[in-house]
């Protein structure tokens, strides 16, 4: 046991001058960006640790499943880049007072200005700004008429 104590007694601590030289040498070999990246990592970790309150997405109909609206004008919208088509849409003034663009599903419609439609939440992924859809078979928007084979 004494042998181990003698080994540790023989080891003397390094003088402060040598320690500072070693740290200077270490810092000279470290890249300049290293400290910056450490600070950035710390900042990112703090975002996760604090549990920031993420605001919930607001429904375009203020949390209601359906809303009645009056058509102001019919529109034809173009989808985003990989898709190409003409999406039939209408500009609707809802009963809440908002004016939104609504998609008319199905083939063909006879909607005109001042007609009444029922709108539901459901966005069109390839057309920007269209967040609601019209419901077929309610008010002035009839069901899609199937052509019978004769």
Automatic annotation (TrEMBL):
Keyword Ribosomal protein assigned: yes
Domain of life assignment? Eukaryota
The record's section on Pfam families has: Ribosom_S12_S23 (PF00164)
Q: What is this protein called?
A: Small ribosomal subunit protein uS12m
- Where in or outside the cell is it found? Mitochondrion
Member of which family? Belongs to the universal ribosomal protein uS12 family.
Organism, per UniProt?
Polyplax serrata
Q: Name one GO cellular component term.
A: small ribosomal subunit
The entry's keywords:
Mitochondrion, Ribonucleoprotein, Ribosomal protein, Transit peptide
Q: Does the keyword Ribosomal protein feature in the UniProt annotation?
A: yes
**Gene Ontology molecular functions:** structural constituent of ribosome
What's one GO BP annotation on this UniProt entry? translation
């Amino acid at each position: 046991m004494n042998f181990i104590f003698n080994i540790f007694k023989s080891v003397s601590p390094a003088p402060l001058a040598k320690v500072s030289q070693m740290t200077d040498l270490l810092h000279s070999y470290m890249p300049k960006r290293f400290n910056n990246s450490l600070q950035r990592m710390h900042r990112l970790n703090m975002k996760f640790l604090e549990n920031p309150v993420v605001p919930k997405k607001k429904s375009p109909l203020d949390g209601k499943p359906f809303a009645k609206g009056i058509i102001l004008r019919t529109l034809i919208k173009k989808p985003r880049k990989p898709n190409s088509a003409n999406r039939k849409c209408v500009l609707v003034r809802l009963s809440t007072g908002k004016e939104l663009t609504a998609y008319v599903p199905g083939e063909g419609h006879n909607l005109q200005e001042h007609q009444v439609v029922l709108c539901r939440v459901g966005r069109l992924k390839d057309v920007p700004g269209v967040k609601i859809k019209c419901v077929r078979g309610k008010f002035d928007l009839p069901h899609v008429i199937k052509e019978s084979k004769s």
